[in-house]
Amino acid sequence: MDCRSISSRFESGSQLWLSRTMAVNQMISMDIRTQKTFEALFALEDIRETLRQRLPNITGQEDERIIREGVSKVRTILDDLEAGTGTPQVRKIAGTIDIRSREETYINIQPIQAAGRLTPEARKALIAYGDGYSTCDACRKPFRLDKISNPPIAPFHEQLASFLNMDDARVVPGARRGFQAVASTLVDKGDTVIVSALAHYTEFLAVEEAGGIVREVPLNEQNLVTADATAEKIESVKQETGKLPVLVMMDHFDYQYANEHDVKGIAKVAHQYDIPFLYNGAYTVGVMPVDGKEIGADFVVGSGHKSMASPAPSGVLATTSEWAPRIFRTTQMVGDITQRKFGVKEVEMLGCTLMGSTLLGMMASFPAVKERVNRWEEELKRSNYFIDGLLSIEGSNVASEYPRKHTLSKVDTTHSFDNVAQHHKRRGFFLSDELSGRGIIGEFAGATRVWKLNTYGLSWEKVRYLTDTFQDIADKYELQVKRG
After folding, report:
1. Which of the four CATH numbers 3.40.50.2000, 3.30.70.260, 3.40.640.10, 1.10.10.10 does domain 138-354 have?
2. Are 245 and 237 in contact (CB under 8 A)?
3. How far is CA 381 from the centre of its chain?
4. Within a 10 A sphere around the Cβ of 63, how many other Cβ atoms?
5. How far apart are CA 484 and CA 482, in angstroms?
6. pLDDT tens for residues 427-454?
7. How confident is the model at residue 74 (pLDDT cuts 50, 70, 90)?
8. For the chain, what are the domain ranges?
């Protein structure tokens, strides 16, 4: 190689390094702007408190003074925000709680956080509806959450059912409460429920609480659950217990590998045995199109805070007209002294479920969620772009099925980054240090063998930066990278 080509490569590499360094420095310099944004929001909340404490539409002299001082403070903060100057004035909320600025300051690849990031509309809903029972301001007879029309909670329930192509839906405090509602309805003491060998622990707990027993469908060589394996498990349970399982509960994409399982085939098998099928869409409802009836689901469960850009805890339970009367049964109990009865209240929902800002945040994000599921294929392209870039680092592998069918992935860097960790003074934490220093967080701190990440919601610019960063770190520690 002649001197000119060496010089050209050096200049090209230097320019690339410089552009990336400038990008990182720009990101880090944004920290003060993030800080000032929070300070401005907090200062506005102080003004808001003054407005809350005054008499209706009457502002006294002292109130006016406090408001003027507050506005002046906000202007000063906004000046700093615009210029990117100033120093942090507020470091804690209520003296003990750190300001959470991960999403503003970093690229966050935390595996279960990605699709739960709130939309701007949801964050506004938190501000406006943060008071505990804010959803209940206009609650009238029949005094039930899904019947409230202002704010439009009743229409939202109808929209949720339509969104999933099911007949009836309720909001619940997380997917786990959806599992719980179905299990407590269908499962009696000693009954068997079929789950995946990759089932989430909350599925186990829901069955255990109802007094049932779980039986797991084994995985094949690709770590997938098949319809045939499910049928074999059902037959095994029938032989062992003398009766059929009462429920088949299966994840579309599991939480360990995010592999795609044959839920449609499994639902068909369950129905051949006349067993109801629960579709666990914790990693699908809200990120990709889900058609419950096309799948063959009797119950669809989704996670609001995991996949629907909603505050925690939130989720959805949807069902068909066949099962709705049982799952959403109303109380029949009568008080022995007062003769009180609350017949409109649904037993499995304990009357009402999501209240206040949790529900309103979920509702505020819903228009964006309905739209974004149509961009799932683009999300998969970005996911595979990153995985391909990671696999170009010699010794790196993907433990999940490949090409990826989800943005959540389990990767294996035992023979790449973990080789570095064996000789680094920071051990496995060296990778966390390198990533956070470049504005990336969310990987399992200290993990350099098998770990998970999620690219959902990242722009192409961020995905390319993410990919380049891993390759740059590999270059730094002399790991071979096959580019191009």
Report:
1. 3.40.640.10
2. yes
3. 20
4. 15
5. 7
6. 999 999 999 999 999 999 999 999 999 9
7. very high
8. 3-105, 138-354, 375-476
